[in-house]
From TrEMBL:
It comes from Paenibacillus septentrionalis. Residues 2-103 form the Semialdehyde dehydrogenase NAD-binding domain. It comes from the Bacteria. SMART domains: Semialdhyde_dh (SM00859). Pfam families: HIM1. The lineage of its organism: Bacteria, Bacillati, Bacillota, Bacilli, Bacillales. This is NAD(P)H-binding protein.
Amino acid sequence: MKAVIVGATGLVGRELVRLLLNNKNYSKVTVIARKRLSVVHPRLEQQLISFDELHECPKEWFEDADVFCALGTTIKKAKTKEMFRRVDHDYVIEVGKLVVRHQARKLIVVTAMGANEQSMFFYNKVKGQTERDLQELKLPQLIIVRPSLIIGDRHEFRFGEAMAVKLSGWLSFAFKGRMSKYKPNEAKVIAQALSKLALLCTEQVRVVTSDEISYWSRQKVY
């Protein structure tokens, strides 16, 4: 099988590249990115492209592939709401259209725990609109993964995230029962769940909540 990763330079994407290259189920892993990864592997193929030109991706990159989309930014990095929406909605929807047009096998996409197109919060509203518009594409298979706060070894320091990590450690006893969905998700665990879902999930549309991510990450693939 083939795998395609869009958004491979982010926290989850980097972990996913490493996992899929070590997964013998995939004969080739194609990364579509704006800049080259510092990774060399005989089964890795890197395709550099501006995301504004995603629609130009050829069929051979996607045909019969499991497509993983971990694109995402923040309002702070995007600078404007318009640019945030372009990354977290428009680019993701274009990936979905490529899956349909070029006959990929499925799309596994990372959104966010609070995704809701009716939300009063801009971030959650955009994520919800992205999920809605992906479902309207009638993909062959769509798996949506909604993590809580994503933690891991970032290239940049985020004060709010650092504080949240500390608080979650101190308050680990509080993430029980209905509160378990608010527990931060480690990037490597999310990546493990994505790779297992691609191989094990058979539902045409599946939404995986933050508290289910750890469960999927532990599943065995034979």
